[in-house]
Amino acid sequence: MGSWHIIFTLGIFLAAGLLSGTLGELFRLPKVTAYLLMGVILGPALLDLVPHKHIEELEPLTDLAMALVLFGLGNHFTLSRLRRLFHRVLPLSLSEILATFFIVYVGLLLVGESGSAAILLGALAIATAPATTILVLREMESEGPISEYTGILVALNNLASIIAFEVIFVAVLFFKGDSQGGSVFSGLAHLSMDIFGSIFIGVFGGFMISYGSSIIKGSRRIIMFVGLISLALGLCRTMELPYMLTFLAMGFTVANSLAEEEVPKVEKELYPLTGFLCVLFFIIHGVELKPKQFMEAGLIGGGYIAFRLLGKYFGILVPARMRGEEPEVSQWLGTTLFAQAGAAIALSAIAVGRDEVLGTHLQTIILGSVVFFEIVGPIMIRQSVLRAGEVPLINAIHHTAGDPISEFQSMVRRFLVSFGLLSEIDQPPDQILVEQLYRKNVKGISQTATFNEVISFIEHSHDNTFPVLGPNEEVVGVIRYQDLSNTLFDPKIGSLVRAADLANNLETVVYPDDSLARVWAKFREGSYDCLPVVAREQPHRMLGIIRRWEILKYYIKGHRSAQSNDSK
Which UniProt keywords apply (predicted)? Predict the structure, then answer.
């Protein structure tokens, strides 16, 4: 194709990113999916506008994008958070990993795949695309157990996939007679060095970032962050180490060695650069997708897709129901793990170098299925957090699915809004109901919870008002953060006081059929930052919460839109 300068290609990608992001909002697609589709259009599958050598030359930027996303993911893994969640997430993770592996392995054997390829594809099926998954959750501003569990599951999936693939590949080569007995041990030793070496680099780099953050201030901090991350990435690439583990370990180290209030600042400072590079990452990734390979994968490729979907979904559904997890978790958590790309592609490329025939076959299946998983995966992630009620009010309004006619009407309305011919808020507040807007997947505090359990709940909450629930999940009162100011410093009451003793009488509740205008009036009457949404029938079972700031944000957006129309 053309021989223009690589900067021109970079400009094409950025312009395409702007256009696809806008189209994604217009047609209610996750931006990640829109970027990927735009990349497919620009790539050899359709327009073939981009010189292939430019894709190779821009690869360091896509690696840096992945490193920043993984670093940000690791930043959320504080030890206190892991201790709180691990006993709940670990059984789900083990079940999902094993179910995915065995369903893919056995299923592919049944459709005629060879044993060696089937077992390796089972290991590859475990991997989940971290950049795709985390960026869709961030775009949706989702919050709740599904969003929280997903980050941990993604990290564990990729760790398990890398280890399982390497161990199984050594065994496959040994039983095929392509290795001497001693090579099995050398292969396992090489795997151990890869894992511990990559983690060591990450931990060391994390300590360097934490130390540097305490002595370097101002705009120089971003130079330090990017410099250390780039050094670690370059070292991993030079030594051929799995850098995904490096940056998870680096983020984890920073989260647990830096002052708690400083950790969000690190992520905030890196966020603009991460967002910029991720646009390039997904556009370039889309260019590299080859829909033709989806057809070339044939029956085995179709089976791999179907069996992997079944493994992810039922691997979460069954244990979640057995353990009594919330219905939303059992139904929607598995579908957030469908996306697959980076780790599986990298491992299949390694397989080609070790056994060209077997590796090429694996690579064909993976590259073909990635076309499906990277397009459908982000859509399923978005739908999962929407259906589970973990998306803020302002996003839920603009992302709730409808029928084709209403979708077309909404598209025309948004087009008119962009020209200032229509208000951005298409429904007056007295016509919008709470049932359309509130966060559903939210917990309260049991009235029998001890004072220490109440404090633990508050530590991991974003609110200042906390519903207290009775035995039938009915709201019996609320605890306000400011009401605890005198008791927080009295260590004697930790084991004596219960949540019911701290709760205030419930003065105000919200019902699903209340209008937004009515709810806002209730907020103006009191000082609550959020209100519980309860069922009208007795007892008033808690359904979720609605927050003051989210409604205010909605009103401000409508006010700005009205001002814009008036000025015209």
Answer: CBS domain, Membrane, Transmembrane, Transmembrane helix
Residue 533 structural domain: 424-566
**pLDDT tens sequence across 32-77:** 888 888 998 998 888 888 888 898 899 899 889 989 988 988 888 8
- One-letter amino acid for residue 442 of the chain: V
- Split into its structural domains, the chain has a count of 2
Does the residue 278 lie in any domain?
Answer: yes
pLDDT of residue 503: 76
How many whole angstroms separate alpha carbon 465 and alpha carbon 560? 29
The lowest-confidence range among 19-23, 336-340, 477-481 is: 477-481
* Contact (CB, 8 A) for 522 and 510: yes
273 exposed, middle or buried (CB, 10 Å; 0-12, 13-18, 19+)?
A: middle
Residues 451 and 309 in one domain: no
Phi, psi torsion values for 427, nearest 5 degrees: -125, 135
Q: Is residue 319 within 8 Å of 91, Cβ to Cβ? A: yes
What's the whole-model pTM score? 0.74
CA distances from 329 to 30, 86, 147 (A): 21, 15, 10
The phi, psi pair for 480, rounded to 5°, reads -105, 140
Secondary structure E strands in 266-330: none
pLDDT band with cut points at 50, 70 and 90 for residue 437: confident
Instruction: Yes or no: say if 166 and 191 are a contact pair by the CB < 8 Å rule.
Output: yes
